Amino acid sequence: MTYVWVIVTAMLLVAAVLTTIRFLLGPTTLDRLVALDTIIALCMCGLGAWAAFSLDSTVVPAIVALSLLSFVGSVAIARFRVRDDQT
Known about the structure:
Blueprint: H1 2-25, H2 29-54, H3 60-80
Helix pairs in contact: 1-2, 2-3
């Protein structure tokens, strides 16, 4: 089980690094929004993997809170964002 935990952690870290690069280099705000949503989803996956590894379900409310925060943030940014070419 420890090997699976190490492999999952490594995969999530690689995905987080690649997503962070996309977040920093994204040419538009929508690219950055998708990258931010992906980072939050990776955090939720990490918390879920930790809950499965440690057999501890106390992180489930944190996963729910992150999903609600991600949804509300995405909707707010998509609703009130200004086009990139109108600067």
